[in-house]
Amino acid sequence: MQILSFPLWSQAAFWGLVSGSALVFGALIGYYIKVPPKWIAFIMAFGSGVLISALAFDLMNEAYERGGFRASAIGFVSGAVVYSLANYFLNKRGAKHRKRSGNQQQNKNESSDSGLAIAVGSLMDGIPESIAIGVSMIEGGAVSTAAVIAIFLSNIPESLSSTSGMKKSGRSKKYIFGIWLGIALISSLAALCGYSVFKNLSPQVVSATIAVAAGAILAMLSDTMMPEAFEEGHDYIGVITVLGFLAAFILTKMEG
């Protein structure tokens, strides 16, 4: 999808903001509406399926077409490794349960570092998606509608669940919404940088960058969203995840 008469860098920033705004929307639901944990799990499972489909049919496919197997494979594994290492250190600081909707998150009085760790961890979870949006616009000059919708839909349960957990752990409204508003704005900047920084680089570098983002996103799903979904949803999670995958798959084929 292309916004006529606007420069591509501003379109990249716009679509990054659109996908990031879902985090604020999910936070509003999580803070003001008492959503049963099982329903949060179902929403997270659907969002996980949507995002996995977007990784497979949009990001990794584009990475392969741009730079071939080597660049995309190295980038994909590197993204997962870098994310997992960063996530490991943040978990040690109190961010381990940042996506959980129950009482697992550390209380704000239990650790002076946990608040910052949760904020940095939440930022780390959202940035790869936005960079991928910007980078994906380099060749064709238009954003993948399916990818934006998939990221938007997956961001809602991500912030919904995390906000529910933050509220239960005693985090203030200012802290909670400050995180999500900040990440939404940074998502816009990340998409802008993804387009502006990489547009003059080689196809192999662009391919690896898209794959790095894809690897980081899949690692994030495995480490944070899917455990929360399974813990509360159990037997239904597999089917709901498949439905999310199918919905994004259909969007991808309709766009093509």
Overall description:
The chain is mainly alpha-helical. It contains 7 helices and no strands. Helix 3 packs parallel to helix 5 (173-198). The N and C termini lie close together (11 Å). The mean pLDDT is 80.
Features of the shown structure:
mainly alpha; 0% strand; 7 helices; 256 residues
The count of helical stretches stands at 7
Percent of sequence in beta strands: under 5%
**Largest sheet features:** none
Q: Helix and strand string, N-terminal first?
A: HHHHHHH
What is the first-to-last residue Cα distance? 11 Å
The overall average pLDDT, rounded, is: 80
Find the structural class using helix and strand composition.
Answer: mainly alpha
Identify the overall geometry.
Answer: globular
Q: Helix content range of the residues, please?
A: over 70%
**Radius of gyration over alpha carbons?**
17 Å
Question: How would you name the oligomeric state of the polypeptide chains in this document?
Answer: single chain
The beta-strand count equals 0
Enumerate the spans where pLDDT stays under 50 for 5 or more consecutive residues. Answer: none
Summary, kept brief:
By secondary structure, the protein is mainly α. About 80% of the residues lie in helices and about 0% in strands.
List the helices and strands and how they pair.
Blueprint: H1 8-32, H2 37-95, H3 114-136, H4 145-168, H5 173-198, H6 203-233, H7 237-255
Helix pairs in contact: 1-3, 1-4, 1-5, 2-3, 2-4, 2-6, 2-7, 3-5, 3-6, 4-7
